[in-house]
Design brief:
The complex is a heterodimer of chains A (469) and B (211).
Chain A: H1 6-12, E1 15-18, E2 24-27, E3 30-33, H2 39-47, E4 58-60, H3 70-75, H4 80-96, E5 99-100, H5 111-118, E6 126-129, E7 143-146, H6 149-158, E8 160-163, E9 167-174, H7 183-194, E10 202-207, H8 209-212, H9 216-224, E11 233-235, H10 240-246, H11 255-265, E12 278-283, E13 290-292, E14 300-302, H12 316-329, E15 344-347, H13 355-365, E16 376-379, H14 384-392, H15 395-402, E17 405-406, E18 427-430, E19 445-448, H16 451-460
Parallel strand pairs in A: 3-4, 3-6, 4-5, 6-7, 9-10, 9-12, 10-11, 15-16, 15-18, 16-17, 18-19
Antiparallel strand pairs in A: 1-2, 2-8, 13-14
Chain B: E1 6-14, H1 21-24, H2 44-47, E2 79-82, H3 94-102, E3 106-109, H4 114-121, E4 126-129, H5 132-144, E5 149-153, E6 158-160, E7 166-168, H6 173-181, H7 185-190, H8 193-206
The chains are: A alpha/beta (469), B alpha/beta (211).
The structure holds iron/sulfur cluster (SF4).
Iron/sulfur cluster binds at residues 63-64, 110, 112, 131, 133, 349-350, 411, 414-415, 432-433 of chain A.
Chain lengths: 469, 211
């Protein structure tokens, strides 16, 4: 018999019972809750007169709807509909005895940033959240995936989910990354390679020396976008980098329990003889800084490339999709990527709002100012604590001196549910994860890039190769 | 949950790949704390030419006549025919609620994104994945005759065309059982409360830091 993959190990350790057809009742160790996908779930509990099975396994935080403007944060949310939703979370958390970091708590931030930051995300856990980017937490060797609202209610009521095992895929990124090339470029390159449905039905383990060489911040960026590759689960095996990160965090085990946990976590790797249903290789050295050109994350090219031509695509459905995308994005085939000028810049989101991301962007700015054609550039830290650390390092000053706005933590312009958004036709260099039509506001045009590439574009006024910037 | 046994009705063709959940229900509508009422804003950016906000009177908005769901008879459609990777993007169950509220009971496509696929079953909506060439055939039929209807019989796992042809489809046994009987997952799971408690006891021994 062949060995087990990391995913198999995590799955098997959480099976409460299995039906004849292979459907499993899976135990959930940690449940993160935010304001957008939970109100109907709490309402469901109330209607059925049910209590949470384990309120202490849940952690709640408002992030999608909160204002990031400093003044608005202080005086309260002005949008009445958003306000109602954030208050609903406050009330639900109180009523059901769930810990919440409310809007003005220093620990508040994007749900996928604060879980790891607090040590609420631990190796070996099953972790869910009513949000597709829950895959982020897989960077810790945890089985983490996004769920819908009915499932949020199901986890609250039973601490379990009904699941079937997915297939295993491993993506090996071997070698050394070039300077100026980051985790974001790796994951965009992967999506460009396998497509947005390439990972559908799979749990993807990211492996290889280039992945092992990344910090936890970088690994989270990669796992975050597993969903853009179609996979609900992204994973990285546990190693010393993982353990060093978790140690001493508020929710992490302490003293004798810590020793026991670390010993158990060392087994959280795929066995040498484990079988993967699909395996992909990528050479790290060949990855260049990436920029998306279309309305799907798979529509991506290297910065020194040009906007692709739909006429060259033989698949008819694809080719018409490309045409629609170019039309929406207001781009012509053949245009060099580095000639595309931008209107706005967004550095933030659960993909790229951690300290390392902000440091990388600040390094690129290096005393320079925003280009004149850039109307607005936002930096939105992933959490209150990251904001604080960045300020201690003087990063806020580097950004403000250059003309960026330094904001309060939240999802912000990643999905533009609050006031941070693009006007129709505006073009944005964004460190977020989705470039769908209308994602950053109706008619908005999003180009996904790394924090360093976003900073460089902000200074140049157009996309530019950060390697010679 | 509404039972799903046999559904017969008009099929609306939505001829684009990678239709994402942001397109199915734009984010401004996610501020609602209710489960219903999303139908009028399903595919909002495509259905209307001007931007929409929650609680707006849609009758005063400019309608995009080119969009398929604005054309008769598709306002009465109950089956949506789509292309690959339908429902990709965010996990929002609001996407399923919006389709359901519009009147859809089933979506047929070559492939679906996992979370959307899962969410559908929880709401009495049947997602059916068929071979790309079978879907292509259906597109030809539906485009060839406005108001083309299909019948979906879940018990026998068959789609019946107007010509009387039968197309078989796959569905997970457990999900089929829940749909046919309109069963709520939570109630089913709580039948196994003892198993859950036993699992917790054992985990408290082997991994006490999780509690
Ligand atoms: S930052 Fe963006 S992708 Fe991440 S949880 Fe918030 S809205 Fe979703």
């Amino acid at each position: 018999m062949s060995g087990k993959t990391l995913y198999d190990k995590l799955f098997d350790a959480h099976v409460v019972r299995t039906e004849d057809d292979g459907t499993a009742l899976l135990y959930i160790d940690r449940h993160l809750v935010h304001e957008v996908t939970s109100p109907q779930a709490f309402e469901g509990l109330r209607l059925a007169n049910r209590q949470p099975w384990r309120a202490d396994a849940a952690l709640a935080v408002p992030d999608h709807n909160v204002p990031t403007d400093v003044a608005e944060r202080a005086k309260g949310i002005t949008d009445p509909v958003a306000k109602k939703q954030v208050e609903a979370l406050d009330n639900n958390a109180r009523e059901f005895g769930i810990t919440e970091f409310d809007m003005n708590d220093i620990r508040q931030g994007i749900v996928h940033v604060i879980g790891p930051e607090q040590g609420a995300t631990l190796p070996g856990m099953t972790l869910v959240c009513g949000d597709s980017h829950t895959a982020t937490h897989g960077a810790f060797g945890a089985m983490a995936f996004g769920i819908g609202t009915s499932e949020v209610e199901h986890v609250l009521a039973t601490q379990c989910l009904i699941q079937k095992k997915m297939k295993n895929m491993r993506i090996n990124v071997e070698g050394t990354l070039g300077t100026g090339v980051t985790a974001k470029d790796i994951v965009l390159a992967i999506i460009g390679e396998i497509g947005t449905a390439g990972g559908t039905g799979y749990a993807i383990e990211f492996a290889g020396s280039a992945i092992r060489g990344l910090s936890m911040d970088g690994r989270m960026t990669i796992c975050n976008m597993a969903i853009e590759a179609g996979a609900r689960v992204g994973l990285v095996a546990v190693d010393q980098t993982t353990i060093d990160y978790v140690k001493g965090r508020p929710y992490a085990p302490k003293a004798e329990l810590w020793e026991r946990a670390v010993a158990a976590w060392s087994a959280l790797v795929s066995d040498d003889d484990a079988k993967f249903d699909s395996e992909i290789m990528l050479d790290a050295a060949s990855i260049k800084p990436q920029v998306t050109w279309g309305t799907s994350p798979e529509m991506v090219v290297a910065i020194d490339d040009t906007v692709p031509d739909p006429a060259q695509e033989s698949d008819e459905v694809k080719s018409s999709g490309m045409e629609k995308a170019l039309d929406y994005m207001g781009l012509k085939a053949g245009t060099p990527m580095n000639e595309i000028s931008i209107d706005k810049v967004f550095i933030g989101s659960c993909t790229n709002s951690r300290l390392e991301d902000l440091q990388e962007a600040a390094k690129v700015i290096n005393g320079r100012k925003l280009a004149e054609n850039v109307k607005l550039a936002l930096v939105v830290p992933g959490s209150g604590l990251i904001k604080q650390q960045a300020e201690q390092q003087g990063l806020d000053k580097i950004f403000s001196d250059a003309g960026f706005e330094w904001r309060e933590p939240g999802c912000s312009m990643c999905l533009a549910m609050n006031a941070d958004r693009l006007e129709a036709g505006e073009r944005c260099a964004s460190t977020s994860n989705r470039n769908f039509e209308g994602r950053q506001g109706q008619g908005s045009r999003t180009h996904l890039v790394s924090p360093a590439m976003a900073a460089a574009a902000a200074i140049a006024g157009h996309f530019v190769d950060v390697r010679n910037f | 949950m509404e039972k799903f046994t046999t559904v017969t009705g008009i099929v609306a063709p939505l001829d684009r790949p990678n239709v994402d959940t942001d397109a199915i229900i734009p984010k401004q509508y996610l501020k609602s704390i209710k489960r219903s009422g999303f139908g009028p804003n399903a595919f909002d950016d495509w259905r209307y030419l001007d931007p929409g906000e929650p609680d707006m009177d849609n009758r005063s908005r400019r309608v995009n006549k080119d969009f398929v769901l604005n054309q008769q008879p598709y306002e009465q459609a109950v089956i949506l025919l789509a292309r690959e990777n339908f429902g990709c993007g965010s996990s929002r169950e609001h996407a399923v609620w919006a389709l359901e509220d519009f009147g859809f009971r089933a979506v047929i496509a070559p492939s679906f994104a996992d979370i959307f696929f899962n969410n559908s079953f929880k709401n009495g909506m049947l997602p059916i994945a068929l071979d790309a060439n079978v879907v292509e055939d259906l597109f030809n039929k539906v485009n060839g005759k406005k108001g083309y209807q299909l019948t979906i019989d879940l018990a026998s796992q068959k789609i019946i065309t107007e010509e009387g042809d039968e197309i078989e489809f796959d569905v997970d046994e457990f999900r089929k059982y829940c749909l046919l009987n309109g069963l709520d997952d939570i109630g089913l799971t709580l039948n196994h409360a003892d198993d859950i408690r036993a699992y917790e006891e054992q985990r408290k021994q082997s991994a006490p830091w999780l509690f």
